[in-house]
Design goal:
Blueprint: H1 3-17, H2 32-41, E1 46-47, H3 48-55, H4 59-71, E2 75-80, E3 83-91, H5 93-114, H6 119-139, E4 142-145, H7 151-167, E5 190-196, E6 199-210, E7 213-221, H8 230-244, E8 249-254, H9 259-267, E9 271-273, E10 285-290
Parallel strand pairs: 7-8
Antiparallel strand pairs: 1-3, 2-3, 4-5, 5-6, 6-7, 8-10, 9-10
Length: about 290
């Protein structure tokens, strides 16, 4: 049996056993799609744009799902107080009750699935499902070029700067906001953000170093995603962007405390070289790679 066969068999088995095939998911009277949307809106509400990004739904289908919940009196669509051009979805009082009922039914279903298993089997399942969830999400992460001062880029860079502050022995002070952003835009640069469930989980940029060389900058992968191959995938994407911009060589610098990144660069074919710049006071190691 191939891995593809295993994944397909798991999909068939799991969707049947959690009730995804039933017209009334968990006996709520709603199908899975509408129930999932109700859960994602949640007690605090959610912006329509965020729901579309998080669930990766077509705008038309999302509109139909929201309309169904609104017709059932479970949600209402309101202008976003922060930007009245945008819309938010909020649960009504009936929607709050439906949300709690759905949550309780889901809890009972999960406990029922676990009930026949021994403690050892439950531990194995916990480990297996955690690994499977991480790898499936890693396989479906979206990598896209964005403006380096856009909201997704800002959110990712905020996490990146915070991590450097925690890990560097001397701390980290980021550049002033938007400094150097122009270098990470076409035609000489690019900035890539990876998102999962609508949230940034990795980022990185490439900018012009010289006529034939692109420099990789601000590369970050969320700690909870390390070990899933996302860093390597992001690095390959940045190299591809560098090639498309006309560069035949990539260089980068890093701090010695970022041991995972250093190991990844070695596996990806980068070799350590002498310092090529003094612009970055935190840089302690320098690498290069010929791009093909």
């Amino acid at each position: 049996m191939t891995l593809v066969d295993t994944v397909r068999r798991f999909n068939r088995s799991y969707t049947q056993r959690i009730g995804a095939l039933e017209e009334s998911f968990l006996g709520t009277g709603r199908p899975l799609g509408a129930s999932r949307l109700l859960f994602e809106v949640g007690p605090d509400g959610a912006a329509v744009r965020d729901l579309r990004e998080r669930l990766e739904l077509d705008s038309g289908y999302l509109t139909r799902l929201v309309s169904r919940l609104a017709d059932d009196g479970l949600v209402e669509v309101l202008p976003d107080p922060a930007d009245r051009r945008r819309r938010t979805v909020q649960l009504t009082a009936a929607g709050q009750a439906a949300y709690r009922d759905l949550d309780e039914r889901s809890e009972r279903k999960a406990r029922g699935l676990l009930e026949p298993l021994t403690e050892r089997q439950r531990a194995r399942l916990d480990d297996a499902l955690g690994t499977a969830d991480l790898l499936i999400r890693a396989a479906t992460v979206r990598l896209r070029v964005v403006d380096p001062v856009s909201d997704p880029a800002g959110a990712a860079l905020g996490e990146y700067y915070a991590e450097l502050g925690r890990r560097f022995p001397e701390g980290f002070v980021p550049d002033p906001a938007h400094q150097g952003a122009d270098a990470l835009r076409a035609p000489s640069g690019a900035f890539v953000v990876a998102t999962s469930d609508g949230a940034p989980v990795a980022c990185g940029g490439v900018r012009r170093f010289d006529r034939t060389t692109g420099e990789i900058k601000r590369m970050w992968v969320a700690s909870s995603w390390r070990g899933a191959g996302l860093g390597t995938r992001l690095l390959r994407r940045l190299e591809s962007e560098a090639l498309s911009l006309g560069y035949s060589r990539a260089v980068l610098d890093t701090n010695r405390s970022l041991t995972e990144a250093i190991a990844m660069y070695g596996r990806a074919g980068y070799r350590e070289i002498a310092p090529y710049s003094e612009d970055n006071p935190y840089a302690e190691m320098f690498f290069e790679k010929a791009l093909v």
